[in-house]
Write a structure and sequence with these properties.
This protein is an all-alpha fold. It has helices spanning 2-10, 17-33, 36-73, 77-105, 109-122, 124-127, 133-146, 161-172, 179-193, 202-210, 216-229, 234-244, 248-272, 277-303, 307-320, 329-340, 343-353, 362-374, 382-388, 392-407, 411-415, 433-449, 453-460, 485-492, 509-530, 532-550, 554-575, and strands at residues 152-154, 427-429. The longest helix has 38 residues, at 36-73.
């Protein structure tokens, strides 16, 4: 009972004699292993094990190289010729595809696949630690405020679909508008010409569906249905003027009918717009319709040669609706005043709209440069300027050109006719190629009219790029040039137009690599076809010369050379 109680009280019995002796031997061994000579002995043993592994690998490598050399010695010149031709053909296909992909999309296909698909599989996306949510949101908000977005704008000088775009397609067989551009126009029409109260009027309900139709014939048919329900449906006349009229005269007739109906509806909406939010929305819609119709009527007058009438209509429209400056009606006014050669009026418009708080455009920047160039271009000569230096007026003109080129570097090539023009799209990207096409399409004649203006532009526009830091991490007078313009311009401009890219992108590495590989393989194939025996001997000699560099021990080199010597060396010596 006493032993049992003692055992139960302490929870532990007396130690076993065998276990105690084993424990003492383990302690002695641990103390001996802690001595310096024992550590040295363990290091020697580890080194011997590693040396055995190192010596074992060359033996296996020797057998593999011997088998590979025996296989290569049995190959004929026809095999080497077929191998080089196949390699050249495959690398050539890859090169052609890479070049086509770069020309079409501006990126390397191999690099894009590597970044998009292979990097997540390797775990590249997981290695970077995620930033905190609050910091990330604040950083994104700051970047959105500091960096300009690639926002697409409605082209203030867009052409008429039926009277101009469709006629171009009938003559050339090419579609001047892209699906993306037309889809943006359909969204604009639904925003400007529809409201929540359209369901109360059958004609507006039909037009609400008409703006969503993809087919022009379906839209025109719906417009006639709306006119059958209500002969004063202004939006139906707008659609017919834009798409069914085949001449500017016919379009103007439809717009005059739309103006008559739109003014009547606008006056009704003004009388009851304060009754409910729905009536306010209807007033906004009717205001948009009225402004759109008056602007297009002014553009019709401009195209038909009644320029002073067009100028008056635009000025009246800007006075009547001063809050609609976002529609950029002043750009239509600038172009009409330039046609009248009323340069003092043009300067007055620029003084009002060329403000730091307003978004710039190519029309504003290049028109300001044109006016300053007009003062000196007639007497400007590069030779004379290089001798006597630039005068104050010439310096101002050159600085204005540099400012315009920095805002949109694509315009000068169209003004100098270094690139061919196409019909401008219905939407443009500011600072992009689409804006340059739209500006040059309407303003090239104004630059040609002023003697020496294009010569001054030709002599000075490239100097802008020496003032802009590269790689465009910051701008000189404007924000850094956005990197997203090329993608948006490719969506806006037709496929047969070669999109201008700024800055010019360097060819990707894989295009250089595949081109070099294709050329090298083709050269080897040609040499193998012309000198088969010599090329086979050359390949075998290269193998013999390269093998010693692959060996990292003297004991490994001799057995391998003994294996390779009977196979390769006699043939090399015999041929030489």
């Amino acid at each position: 009972m006493a032993e049992g109680g003692g055992s139960g009280g302490s929870g532990r019995g007396p130690p076993c004699p065998g276990a105690a002796s084993a424990f003492r031997r383990w302690e002695q061994l641990r103390r001996r292993a802690a001595t310096p000579w024992a550590r040295g002995l363990l290091a020697v043993a580890a080194g011997l094990g590693l040396l055995y592994a190192v010596l074992r690998v060359p033996v296996r490598l020797r057998d593999g190289l011997a088998a590979a050399t025996m296989f290569l010695s049995t190959l004929t010149p026809k095999f080497y010729f077929a191998l080089t031709v196949t390699s050249s053909f495959i690398s050539g296909l890859i090169f052609v595809f890479e070049w086509w992909h770069f020309r079409k999309y501006g990126t390397s296909f191999i690099e894009q696949v590597s970044v998009s698909h292979l990097r997540p599989l390797i775990g590249g996306a997981e290695n970077s630690p995620p930033a905190p949510a609050a910091f990330s949101a604040g950083e994104n908000e700051t970047s959105r405020q500091n960096m300009p977005e690639c926002k697409v704008w409605r082209n203030p000088l867009n052409l008429f679909r039926g009277a101009e775009y469709s006629r171009y397609m009938w003559v050339t067989g090419k579609e001047p508008l892209t699906y993306y551009d037309m889809n943006l126009s359909a969204q604009d029409h639904q925003t400007f010409f529809t409201c929540d109260t359209d369901v109360l009027r059958p004609s507006d309900t039909v037009m609400q569906k008409a703006w969503r139709e993809r087919s022009p014939q379906a839209r025109i048919k719906a417009a006639y249905q709306a006119l059958e329900l209500n002969n004063d449906c202004a939006t139906a006349y707008v659609l017919l003027a834009e798409e069914e009229a085949t001449t500017i005269v016919d379009a103007e007739k439809y717009f005059k009918q739309a103006l008559k109906a739109g003014e009547m509806i606008y006056r009704k909406s003004q009388n009851c717009h304060s009754q409910s939010p729905q009536h306010e929305a209807q007033l906004r819609r009717d205001t948009n319709v009225l402004v759109y119709v008056k602007r297009r009527l002014a553009m019709c007058a401009r195209k038909l040669g009644r320029i002073r009438e067009a100028v008056k209509m635009m000025r009246d429209l800007m006075k009547e609706f001063p809050l609609l400056s976002m529609l950029n009606i002043h750009e239509n006014l600038l172009e009409a005043l330039l046609e009248l050669q009323a340069y003092a009026d043009v300067q007055a418009v620029l003084a009002k709209y060329d403000d730091i708080s307003l978004p710039k455009s190519a029309a504003i920047c290049y028109t300001a440069a044109l006016l300053k160039a007009r003062a000196v271009s007639e007497r400007f000569s590069p030779e004379t300027a290089s001798k006597r230096g630039l005068s104050t007026a010439e310096i101002n003109a050159v600085e204005a050109i540099h400012r315009a080129v920095e805002f949109n570097p694509h315009v000068p090539k169209y003004l100098l006719e270094m690139k061919s023009l196409v019909l401008p799209p219905e939407h443009i990207l500011k600072r992009g190629d689409s804006e340059a096409v739209a500006y040059a399409f309407f303003h090239l004649q104004h630059w040609k009219r002023i003697e020496g203006a294009l010569n001054l532009l030709h002599c000075t526009w490239e100097g802008t790029f020496r003032m802009i830091p590269y790689p465009l991490e910051k701008g000189h007078l404007f924000y850094p040039y956005p990197s997203c313009t090329e993608t948006a311009d490719r969506e806006l401009l037709p496929t047969f137009h070669e999109v201008s890219v700024y800055p010019q992108k360097e060819l990707p590495f894989f295009i250089h690599f595949t081109a070099g590989l294709c050329s090298f393989s083709a050269m080897l194939a040609l040499l193998t076809h012309q000198f088969p025996e010599l090329m086979v001997t050359f390949v075998k000699a290269m193998i013999v010369l390269m093998i010693p560099f692959l060996m990292f021990s003297e004991g490994f080199r001799k057995p391998v050379l003994r294996v390779l010597w009977p196979v390769s060396a006699p043939s090399v010596l015999a041929s030489s």
